[in-house]
Amino acid sequence: MKGCVLLSLTCAALLGARVPLSAQQYVPGVTWRQASPESQGVASKPLIEMLQYIRQHRLPVHDIMIVRHGYLVFEASFYPYNPEWPHDLASVTKSVTSILTGIAIDQGLIKSPQQTVGSLLPQYADRLDSSQKSAITIRDLLTMTSGLDCKLEDGEKALKDMQQSSDWAAFALSLRLVDEPGSRFSYCSPNLHLLSVILTTQARQSELNFARRNLFLPLQIRDATWGADPQGRNTGWGGLHLKPRDMAKLGYLYLQAGQWGSHQVVSSAWTQASVQPLVPVRTGVAYGYNWWINTEHTPPIFEAEGRGGQRIVVIRDKDSVITFLGGGVDTDELAPFLLRALSADQSLPPNPAAQKQLKTLLKAAREAPPPRTFHAAGPTTALSGKTLIFEQNPMRLESMTFHFDRTESLALTIGLEGKIYTIPVGSKGRSIISSTGPFGLPFAAQGGWDQGGRFILDLDTLANINHYTIRIDVNAERPFLIIDETTGELHEYRLAARFKAD
User: Where is the Beta-lactamase-related domain (predicted)?
Assistant: First the structure.
């Protein structure tokens, strides 16, 4: 079939060809083999309904993939996300740190999950101010039972405070012990930074380099970036960036009990132990070694989850991996569609009509939605060249300079997390994608004036998850911003500002 244009289905898939189900283990290389949904027992109709639902409700989904029997049978990417951009995995990173901990134990760098923090981090002995704190184990860190007070009820305030400190590991170890280690589940991201520091110390290399050599290299994952603390130690709780097709490989590795072709990347004993319901969280949900366990499904479904809609779902009885990337979506809304799509246990008859409709919807998902309407008038030229300076804030936004020479040509230069970025701003209801941003990944921005004379900035960090709506009021006696963020990190947050003196 000459000229077959692929979105997420192969030409064979579009023709309705069946691909036999294979019990023989397959592992992808740089790319995945592909097949039609029906050939692998996945129904297209619920996938069509899911895409229609996402578009109708304008859900901030970035990417969805389904791998079944080792075939990529469905991939949808949504405007303006590009699947070639490595995406922040948020707390899915915790599950990657868990895998790397298992590899370190396999290699003898860590003795066992029962080894204590005190024995592994002697350089921080002065912060281990009690025998109980010294006795916190690797298992306690992995299962969120360290007993450290991470102030989860305040939105993980301890994590935010840790990031403002000069030594994040020292800060984490100085947290108050409120429970006996191993006794109670309490979600705590600093636990995972301690694991990263332990891996770095024991392997004598960064967690990222350890991952590249022992996990990413055998899986042929080539584009990975990872944030780090002031000492250069990677953030074990979040901030790992991977492309969606590489993200799916991590779930597939666990579907194959840690084996990748002829290579045992991480021991099957570790993969099995990791996804046991070791600690109860709430009815129907338990926690393993940084994996969430759905105990209401038989056998249990296990998942890696991160804020904003980042998710790897492994469904063993369906021989399937599902991945999600998003900018503030509740992926539970989409689960019913996907479970219906996976209901068959054998291949289905070809459905060329459904596959044609699926192709049309996948193409539409990559296109821009209808433009947003803004009020045309505003003090554009009066603001041009002026700079706002901000007080300390959770967004870590330091400054904003306006370049409003003409209504048709808007741009902002922002100081963010100690770096400067110039961002073009779409002024006709459509975003413009910048050339760079944090981790070398772009922003998408659009803006305009509301009827009250406030500038409304829609700033989407895309693969870096956060999507901000910022109302900028420069008419008040003292200028200020009101910031909302789609993942819930900020809601009606008022940020005071001042104009920089000329």
Answer: 56-325
